[in-house]
Amino acid sequence: MQQCPRRxxxxxxxxxxxxxxxxxTVAATDEHTDTSTDxxxxxxxxxxxxxxxxxxxxxxxxxxxxxxxxxxxxxLLEANQPNDPLPNVNVxxxxxxxxxxxxxxxxxxxxxxQPLTVLSGVEIEESTSSRETDAGLExxxxxxxxxxxxxGTDDDVLIVTNELETLDAAVDANAAxxxxxxxxxxxxxxxxxxFGDSHMRLVRTGDEQLMTPGETDAVPTYFTHAxxxxxxDTMEQSIGFEFEDESDISDELIESLEAEFAYTATEEPSVDxxxxxxxxxxxxxxxxxxxxxxxxxxxxxxxxxxxxxxDDYLEIELGRGDPTPIEDLTFEVGDExxxxxxWADGHGKLxxxxxxxxxxxxxxxxxxxxxxxxxxxxxxxxGTTVLSNFWFNxxxxxxxxxxxxxxxxxxPLDGDRLxxxxxxxxxxxxPTEDAPEPKASAQPWTGETLSEGATxxxxxxxxxxxxxxxxxxxxxxxxxxxxxxxxxxxVSFEYDYExxxxxxxIEFGERQQYAAANTAVAExxxxxxxxxxxxxxxxxSADEYELLVDGERATTQWAEEYDTVTSGTTIDIDGxxxxxxxxxxxxxxxxxxxxxxxxxxxxLEYDDGTVEHVGGEALSASELTADVWTDGDRFEIELADExxxxxxxxxxxxVDADAVSDDGAADEDDREFGTVREVSLxxxxxxxxxxxxxx
Length: 695
Description:
It is built from eleven helices and 50 strands. The radius of gyration is 34 Å and the shape is globular. By secondary structure, it is mostly beta strands. It has six domains: 50-184, no CATH class; 190-290, YehR-like fold, CATH 3.30.1830; 295-386, Immunoglobulin-like; 392-426 and 436-485, Immunoglobulin-like (Sandwich); 490-513 and 536-598, no CATH class; 602-691, no CATH class. It starts with 10 loop residues before the first helix and ends with a strand. β8 and β9 form a beta hairpin. InterPro entries: TAT_signal. Residues 518-542 are annotated as: Disordered.
């Protein structure tokens, strides 16, 4: 079996092709009818020529950097590919299935533009006006004001562009009354004819950023890509580069091209060199590709968090996958290939539910493991990280800037490999040159083996800083725990819908964990623990706490009413509309102490198809919508259709097929409701209550 090539050699080409085909979409389609005829004229849609469309390209659309793409959809759709190619007709009210061929010009000189598109097989649906070119040729056109585009037709093709003058030039070019693009741009013409019988052709020119495979600094004159349908299960795929000099075609370039297409070739790919043009053409076995795509490679690695270091092996379970031969699989530990005689554990094939193993002596924190499946299309992989999260607790002294970290897990950790670092912004997952540097770092446990209760202090920490506990480093990918330098206190909010008032309350001590947004869950949790949990006697200056409303400093502040604050100190904020965002931060920073987006709250109960208001705000039924989730669908009920006036405590509404509004998306007789799983009450866009039938 062909091993997966490391797909770096043509990364630039892949990006080029993806950008070039941005004017096309890939989508499943219905069956298409072959509209080919037995005519010898160049206007047939079934042969490989594009002369009939290319003739409409005037030389005036030439740019320094551009892509020209021609596609014969009728022929490409004869191949049984996983997805059918379809043109993007986003500016036109057209059925894409009707388009037989297209030519698309894309420019990259200063910005991305599509100066001209030519389509065959379709007609303008909108009303048109007549226009005459400088050469006296008449055609019909329409302007799409909303899309900043104009569309013209001479009854043979549609021409889409941005300027009427370009339409004129296109019609004149077709009649040989204006210079054609390919007559004026020999590089484009050469690229379009490089693979002359192909059914999709793409040429890119003038791009200094166009990467070439292999070790060469030479920039190609053009890059060309083509696809040709052989039969329903076979396609040819070709790429080529034209260079200024034969010496630009290195051995490394040839080897890289061979490696790039090894994953698709039914035979070993070969590279042809014709003076300054280097190319390769391979056949794609579409039947084999479909079989590979339908095969679910083994993956979704799952490792038990409670690892017993006294075991001989660590077991890793596969959460998905069809039966796959072991010889097609590679297991990597820390980016190194692991011994198959160990990890395969006697399996001949692997599938969902099987386990692979690794020696327990090879297990360490933050260890990356990955299972790779190599196949004809390249490969796929699935990975996870072993022991990537350990329990550490943090305590921040805002007055001294000291952050104390204590170990709260039972897995022995080598202190020599542990780091602490403080960042004033979230570190990048994949660091770059402009990635934030830590403001403080240390290795406080050098020479120790950590056990539960071990502590260390990091100095120079400020409110809101993120503290990273790293294994073998201080980058985000090294993290085995992330903590926050939280200023003292937290804030709970209570919203009175009728008076449009929010009461904000500062809490210190153990109860501050319940100071959350105004939700029934937070309120219930606080009430349940009120007799069991005490607040402490912390007292802070009131001007250390700043209240923001929709991101702006509020006119109401604790410091206006108090010199200091303690647990339970409250302020009222008046005139607050539903949806307003309220935030409390440590003054002078963006370190959040409390946050909410205010909304009313309604407690609901569900009982055998009936939803009852059992507590909370009384709200106008006309403002409310119930979202109903069932086994098979999601529906909406406008409460104004079920409840007159206010939806208040004691009011009910029914959830059944008759109560659910029909949005016209499905015939009433064909809709399947299934068992109700959740009913959620919505005020505008805000969820204000919910009920679960099994609770």
